[in-house]
Amino acid sequence: MFKKPNSRIGLGVAILPLAIALIAPGATQAQIPNRPAPANLAQGRGVAQGASFNRGRNANVTLNLDGENFGLELTEILPSNVRGQSPARVQYRGAITRRTDDPASANSFSLFTRVRSFDSSANLRIITNTTGTCRIEVFDARVISSDCSTIADNSKTEFLGLEQF
Fold first, then answer.
1. Greatest CA separation found in the chain?
2. Residue 106 to residues 36, 39, 41, 75, 155: CA-CA distances in angstroms?
3. Which ranges in the chain belong to alpha helices (H)?
4. Is 131 in a helix, a strand, or coil?
5. How many angstroms separate the CA atoms of 123 and 89, rounded?
6. CB count, 10 Å around CB of 149?
7. What pLDDT tens digit does each residue of the chain (165 aa) get?
8. What is the distance between the alpha carbons of residues 126 and 117, in angstroms, rounded to a whole number?
9. Quick one: which of 38, 68, 156, 161 could link to 144 by a disulfide (CB 3.0–4.6 Å)?
10. Residue 157's closest CA among 91, 108, 113?
11. Would you give the distance in Å from CA 59 to the centre of its chain?
12. Structure pTM?
């Protein structure tokens, strides 16, 4: 018995090269139609103390912004001669309650947030239903300071970025 070919498949294959041609070489994800823009990201390097960072420790910080939500992660920078030890790490996630932009610099702002979850390498557990706050300052797309805490024990962390200018 002879089957009629599926015309939908042929049409989809014919349109595919046209869709690929419409995306210009070097286009970013934000420029591609029907794709969500990537979350905003700011990083920094400095000294952290509190929670898993008993004394002031060199740390990298990463701030992710996704709409009205944020994620802040601090990770200890271990000296090159330390082997077999995991770096201290804390992570705060929650909602942005207020953002104050610096009119003098497009990538400079302060965030005031409500923390909803806290994760620390000191106690190896994630507290997903907690209350707390963070104040985060970003200058020229670099995290220069943060001060976060929750109602959970041993959850306060302060970060002070190194001079980068």
1. 79
2. 22, 16, 14, 27, 32
3. 7-22
4. coil
5. 10
6. 19
7. 444 445 444 444 443 333 333 334 444 444 444 444 446 889 999 999 998 887 888 999 999 999 999 999 999 999 888 788 889 999 999 999 999 999 888 889 999 999 999 999 987 778 888 999 999 999 999 999 999 999 988 899 999 998 654
8. 7
9. 161
10. 91
11. 15
12. 0.73
Place of tokens 């920078």: 77
Q: Residue 77 corresponds to which tokens in the numbers above? A: 């920078």
The beta strand positions in 33-104, using DSSP E, are 40-50, 53-66, 69-76, 89-101
Distances (CA, A) of 14 to 10, 18, 24: 6, 8, 19
The token duo for 17 is 């090269």
Residue the block writes with tokens 């797309």 = 141
Q: Is 111 helix (H, G, I), strand (E, B) or coil?
A: strand
Answer for the pair 143, 61: CB distance below 8 angstroms, yes or no. yes
CA 115 – CA 94 distance, rounded (Å): 4
